[in-house]
Amino acid sequence: MESTDTIKFFQSFVAQMVEIGGINLPRSIATKLGRNLGDLYRKKGVGDYKEALESMFRGMGGKTRKFEQDEHGFTILIEYPREFCPIGGGHKPQRFEIFTEAICRPYAIGFLSAFLPRTKIRMKFLNCVLKEVGKTCSIVARIEKTG
Hints:
4 strands, 4-stranded antiparallel beta sheet, Muramoyl-pentapeptide Carboxypeptidase, domain 2, alpha+beta, globular
């Protein structure tokens, strides 16, 4: 099976999950899977969320081009080798919202929660391969202590 066929299957699967169970079904699964990966990274000795994020994006074929951190959170810019998102496929703006809301945001928040306990994490996607023409994904995360 070619990678484009795999992506098409995945996209169809996500769409069916949303149709059957609403957006919360894939969102819940993505959050749990992200948390599981974060826990696995911690068990393997990765304690820094920046290092973990960069490794996770590298595993998807991306390269961190920018990582800026301040007391409120961080901004990260990931570049992929071509105009193709490993999660959502090629440029299709109509997919942006469903994939960011059902997969990307909850997965990343679940992942980060393994490194940032007792925090609320909010994410905004400033740039996305699905939404804009290009090879980059730019994410702003705001982190607030909750306890």
